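Students often ask why we bother encoding 3D structure as a string. The short answer is that it lets us treat folding as translation between two languages. Here is a chain of 181 residues written in the first language.
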Amino acid sequence: MKTNPIFMDIKYVIFYSLFFNMLTLSILVPKPQYLAYSQTENNTNINSNVWTSERNNLNITMKLMPQVPIIDQKTKILFDVRTLNDSSEFEGLKAKVTLTDHDSRLYKFENKIIPINHGKFSIEYIFPDDGQHRILLQLYKNTTAFTVGSFDIFIPHSSIQPPPPNANKDFFTQFFDNFLN
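And here it is in the second language, the structure alphabet:
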């Protein structure tokens, strides 16, 4: 039994019309306005780099150089001390800095008082390991304690590894070196 060619043509017409209708609808129908895209964030930056005290009219900003500290390499920690209400430099202060880590180790920078010039001062520190660290900042007016602030820093696990000794040799060079030796 032979099928009628008209029915075959109708099947193709129906199929293509459905296909193009679906294509048209997918293009013309508005997309949802409330799409949510998710991406896990590996936050290696400073958790809190600004500390404020309304009581003392004080705003302290901390900046790291490099921005993401590397284990066993020097990191410069810069502090900017300003008044809260007009952002002018806070003068006549000195600071003591203490660093602590997740194992409760303390480093006190020789317990010395650091002068704050033009609202700025800095220290250099070599972070011995990764993880959570806290910087405790004590500010003094003359010799009297003025206020205490803290900053949290997360040091990522170093992913920098030295290349293997034969990393610069291509496959064939390594093959012939091994073959001849």
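Translate back mentally: The domain at 50-155 is CATH 2.60.40.1940 (Immunoglobulin-like). Keep this in mind for the problem set.
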